[in-house]
Write a structure and sequence with these properties.
Strand content: 5-15%
Number of strands: 44
Strand order of the largest sheet: 25-24-23-22-28-27-26
Mean pLDDT: 74
Shape: elongated
Amino acid sequence: MARLADYFLVVAFAPGKRGSGDGQGQILQRFPEKDWEDNPFPQGIELFCQPSGWQLFSERHPPTFFIAVLTDINSERHYCACFTFWEPVESAQNRLRNEEEEEEVAAAALIQPAQLFAPKSLVLVSRLDHADVFRNCLGLIYTIYVDGLSTSLETVIGNLLTCTIPITGGTQPGTEDEGARTISLGAGDRQVIQTPITDSLPVSNCSVALLFRQLGITNVLCLFCAALTEHKILFLSSSYQRLADACRGLLALMFPLKYSFTYVPILPAQLLEVLSTPTPFIIGVSSAFQSETQELLDVIVADLDGGTVTVPECIHISLLPEPLLHQTRGALSMVLDPELEIADLAFPPSTISASSLKMQDKEIRAVFLRLFAQLLQGYRWCLHIIRIHPEPVIRFHKAAFLGQRGLVEDDFLPKVLEGMAFAGFVTERGPPYRTADLFDELVANEAKRMQADEGSRARVLRHIKELAEQLYKNENPYPAVTMHKVQKPAEGCHLRLHQRPFPRLDEGTIQWIVDQATAKLQMAPPAVKAEKKCMVPSGPPLGAVTERNGVVLANSARRLEVVRNCITYVFEGKMLEAKKLLPAVLRAMKSRAARQCLTQELNLHVQQNRAVLDHQQFDFIVRMMNCCLQDCSATDEHGIAAALLPLVTAFCRKLSPGITQFAYSCVQEHLVWTNIQFWEAMFYCDVQNHIRALYLEGAEENGAQKGGEDGPQKEKSALEIAAEQCCYWPTFSREKQQELIQKEESTVFSQAIHYANRMSYLLLPLDTSKSRLLRGSGLADVESVSNSFITNSIAGSVADSYDTESGFEEAESSDVANYVVRFINRFVDKVCTESGVTNEHLKGLHVMIPDIVQMHIETLDAVHRESKRLPPIQKPKLLRPSLLIGEESVMDGLRVYLMPDGREEAAGGNMGGPALLPAEGAVFLTTYRIIFKGTPTDPLVGEQVVVRSFPIASLTKEEKIAVQAQVDQFIQEGCAQLQLRSCTFQLLRIAFDEEVASESAEIFRKHLSKLRYPQHVSDSFAFTAGQLTKQAVPAKAKEKNPSLRTISRILVKNAKKTIGRQYVTRKKYTPPPWEQRGTQQPFPEDQEDEISVSEEVERSTLTPSTTIRPSDKMTMSHLVERACCRDYQRLGLGTLSSSLTRSKNEPFRISTVNRMYAVCRSYPGLLIVPQSIQDNTIQRISRCYRQNRFPVVCWRSSRTKAVLLRSGGLHGKGVAGLFKSQNAPATGPSQADSTSLEQEKYLQAVINSMPHYAEAGGRNTLSGFTSAQMSSSDSSEKRQPKLGSLMKQVMGGKDEGPGTVSRGGKWGSIRASGRMSSYALNMDVGSRLAGKELLGAQPNGSPSEASFLRQHRALLYIIGDKSQLKGVKPDPLQHWEVVPIEVFEARQVKTSFKKLMKACVPGNPTAEPGVTFLRSLEESEWLVQIHKILQISVLVVELLDTGSSVLVSLEEGWDITTQVVSLVQLLSDPYYRTMEGFRLLVEKEWLSFGHRFSHRGAQTLASQSSGFTPIFIQFLDCVHQIHAQFPLEFEFSQYYLKFLSYHAVSARFRTFLLDSDYERLELGLLYEEKGERKGSPQLFRSVWDYMDRLNKKTPVFFNYMYAPEDGEVLRPYSNISNLKVWDYYTQETLSEGPSYDWELIQGQVEPSEEAGQQDTAAPQSRRKVIWPCYDNCSRWEPDAISRLLEELQNLEMELGQVPERWKEMWDKVKAFQRSEAQSDSSSRVVASSLLMAASLPHQRRSLGVCLRESGVSSTINLSLDSDASSTSTPSSGKQGGRRSTSTLYSQFQTAESENRSYEGTLYKKGAFMKPWKPRWFVLDKTKHQLRYYDSRLDTECKGVIDLAEVESITPGTPTMGAPKMVDEKAFFDLKTTKRVYNFCAQDVHLAQQWIDRIQSCLSDA
């Protein structure tokens, strides 16, 4: 029971201090006059009675009533009900003034001063909040006074002060306590007091609903959030009651939190300065003072009258987290605005049941109650109970709560949890044993329902209504309001004029009544109302709540499995497996589940608090822990650090006997350890567990009778135990109570010691000598803002508060130790005072802590010392590379890391795939290669081996590079890093391991440069392989014979001097004007070209006697064997026979003038020259050309008989001289003129040798070449560009438009751009070629003649360098024409190639690899050069094809000339597109004609400075471009080109080593190969022999799509858009290194295949994952044909046959397929190529071959199913695979025998220049073809004549070489559309029979 009213006061107006206009309040009377003991009288009430100030008014106001709230020092609220009425005053001042003024102003008597009224207040002070009762009671007293009722005021007031009421209601009012609920003050009145059922629920009446009505939903929500997050809130209104209601409403909304800051619903004017207080508040102020609130900058002002809320700019209000905010708004609008739902309905319901205001108020509160239940759902699971006795001490684990709710990042909830209100909430609602209320039930039981209701508005509303019902009932438990009976004053009574003042009350009477009542109360037994305490239910745990933003990873189960497996592997010692999984585990650590899983798994491996690991296991575990912790925040909201804390002191490794290193010394770098809140939460959690254990043990001892009730339910939580204990506590004896208190206290104390130890473990660094920096906020708490230094933070925040008590500061590591001691002290103080540890214990702790820290520092010193001695982490075993035969190791493996180099595939990159780089392994140096071999550092990639190597000879740049930011945790800073770049498009970017001494790295570099640039070519690998093993590269540089080196140096110097001298003489020798025009002069690098030793010695110094010792005859026989000679014979360009008859009809002869290399050192010994030119003339002519490289014929077209010539550029004499105009300066002495004439004769002789010239009777027209022929050849070509436009394109500068390509495959004409008019000459030549009239420029003056000439083409075009031909004017009388073109020089090729290498292998990883690559590719201009070369070549091909001869005379005649000449032959002659032909072409044009391989490849020390210039690789790139456009025309594959291009620079073979045949001869290489090879069969000196041998074994060089068309001339597109970047530049195979050293790869593959074969019986997957940059795709996924050939071979082995060579097999298939296709006219299209079906640009076909069976056109599908796969074992492959393959196999033998209509032997004349040979002919009517074989038994068809193409059969005549002794009539000719076949039968009869049979076949058709 409680008093209804504590005090009653009468407060009246009293005048203020003199001079202040206002008065002040004065308490006239107060009852009782003595303070109650339990409730002292509150001071300052008089201020609150008139909050706006005590003033006099000139008129009466009606009485007012409001309740002010005062809060006392114990934060108890006192409700002051003020009832104010006004009384007239007769103030003393007025009286005085009147008396003085009477005599002065007579008139004043007429004007009486207005009467003034003073306020008087009746005030009731109570601790209960019953507003209506107070209003009624004070109203009753006023009524008695105003209406003069008979009742005595003293009695009423006495009764009021002695009235007691129950604080809380419970049951409905029954008879027995009805009197207690109904009160009467003895004036015939009667009131029922509605005491709330539970006092914990606030009473709001209608205040909440009114608040929403005044401010609206958004504003109130804003205020609500502001109040919860502790902002200052100020209400303004002109009504005091409204202010009180608004404040009360806001507080009611905050339930179950209680507002604990300043709360003044009505603030008096005198106290307005309270508003500038720094603490939060909720205050109401009369709007009269609005202006004074304006300057408050941090206060949220709510104007109730205006309905606005003003939030200052500087304030940010955190709103509720979504989706709660949205749901709350929705629910509120449903309650407040039910019409909103139906506003859009067409037929709205007629009535809407709107709730009454009181009910609406409860509904709103229900919404907020639900909101809190959702916000704080599961809060009880985060309570830590740290003491139970003597009373519960409870702490809330905020971080865990936020973490589990996924709201750590949220703005609102963390602030609420930090707030005072929530702290009060925990104190009030934390205890497990207390009375429960509506909120507790809601949290515990309704959570599921609320989650389920979320979607449905109707169900939410139903729930709100239910809750509102309960809230309403709580406030109004008694519906019997009718019993109220309170007198009220008459209307308008306050206006009565003669109202007597309020009487003075008799204190004695009232005091007597009060005393009587108190005496009676003391007599009566105390009415103890039994509190209904119970165990508070906890509700569902939080675990079910997912992360807020829905980041629940779908594959988390798989991740957890990976984490578990990895840990299992670590503990089982399977380190390789663990290493594979580790990166996946580290990535998985991003997810919370995986981190928790890790801690659980690690826990399983700890036995008895200790797990000793070996070093590698320790390393793994520590890495996982660190990764796990680095993703945790410092608050450790998910408890990961908490779970790891016991583990870091459990896992350890033995460093040496007696010294153990624990994991904690390796995981200290995390913020969480420096967060004091984390340690507190951890401490409380552990204490709770121990206290729970304490009572559980007790319970077990007592027996199971209590547990029996629960049955098999789960263990009790700490809170449940605490509740039980609280329940039993009163029943325990005093001793038992003391014992429990002591037990608990010592538990807490022991934990405090434990934690002091733990904290010292994690805070003291391993190396205590360094006062290390702790990252982040350091050990500071909120108080210290200084950041990262441990020194600042701990010292700053702790130094002031504590002083360590031992004299420990003097210790040597005092700084760190001190701070740690202080940090721990501070922690211990805080937790011990909170958990009630006794003072003695606390002091003891403070003494212990410094000793604990000191001890720990000492153990750490030993650990630190030992850990330094620890061998570095077990590095992977060095893998030794396999070497070639003859390859010797120079330096053994140096341990290095191979770094990523910008090619993103290997590093994971945009393709995805594993990060193969960085890899750790070793770099090896051998006599041939630099090899890196190792394994990726990213263990996810597993046991893959990474190999990257390149030949030393291909090294183009070696540089030290700056260390990048630490790329990998393994790579130490300060290690040397090298970058080695090779022209095989490889880059080794290596960082030496710290164990490699810097000297070793330097020695490595020295050896490398010595091997890269040997003194002489003969020291390179191709020569030294397998010979001088030890001397190849000596281990120490000193051993080398110094005298030799010096001698060679002197030799080189002298040579350079002499050459310099010769060079000078040559300068005199040539006319100066030309020299200045020449391109070479300005470039020093090219001058050096001129002076290099090996290259050019003046012709006169070479006499036969000095050069070659063996006899001429011997030399000749060798020379004839050379490649060029074989080719000349094939082309019919003359033989060496000196019979005059032959030589007269042949236009060309083979000259031996250079057999001693006397005329031109860089030419071959035998040369083709015109028949009419004598050898001595040649010697003279040669002087006009650079390097004496005079024009020689290198190819002749078999169709047009036009010839292709090559030479060096002119020296300024000769043709150029001839063309100069008359006024040009004279060309020197007369000798020069004679040479020029001879030169002219020479060119004329070339022209004379052409058949068209002869036919045309010497006129320079092309009349012999009839227009008909022109048109036919034109139409037959595949891509015929207009010649003139082509010529213009080649000559017309860089930016010439590429023109339009028409659909028909021809090139569109290319318009000349205006710029070209500057080259009058060019235009002329171009237009003449195009056969067009050129308007405007007519250089020769005479238009008619010029236009006449322009109709014809010249017979000889000289392609020359524009810069050489400046000033040259065309001479109309000559038969040749000069085509000046711009070409790039060698140095441009060099720089372009450098840029190309940088583009393909950048060296540094870039941000956008794709974009960067394309940009750098364009900047390199490599494709522009390719385009230019192809363009010139196609022009030359066109010219030759139209019957004109061409002389290519560019630069020295050995770079671009060679490229162009070779490409022209390749395009014009199908023979060079075979393997044999291509070899011949390279040997002839590149090797024999002296391309300077050594010089351009910088192969020796001498050529080092000139740098690497890849002229030959550029040529191969051009061939690749053509190959890509005409895949059916080449017998060799793209791989063949890559192979050549690799070995052209590898120096493995001698083929591409020296600069000319002369040099090869000098070294004795030219003719050695045949003789020497017998000695060591494995060492191939020549790349060609090696390739031949390889080709016999495997079809790797063969192009299956090879299906040439007879005699086709190729015309590739050369536009840049048609060019592709060669994949040779970009692809790599990291599994085995470059695939061009075939032996190395073969060695690697076989074992793995064998291993594979044993497993086939098992049902495991045969799949292999192939990574583009790692595996050799072409081998792992071969094309179908290779697969089938391999399969056939396997089958043959299985059947015990000797396997057939693949080539023979292939030829059979081709022949068979050709015959098939031709017999079946429908499939004639197929004949052109075996595999036209698949897309042409691919180098080989993949997946399936279409082979037609005989007779039937069904397709055999050579399935690649598992049974028939090439790897299958005999057992598995018997049925399915055998059938199809064997039928295919049998067809090759039997198919033809079925369709032989007639057969026999005939002699057949071979094609052009071939002899007659007997062949076995088969006439096949079925297939309509004539096939021929070498012999009757031969199964392989050698050729097929399709009878459909036969035009006629005529009797023939014997020709040269025909069989003798045969009748002339036995000859007959078969003419087809393609050619004429000459046959000869054994006799006339047989011949006739053959003719008849063929005729009958033709007629049948």
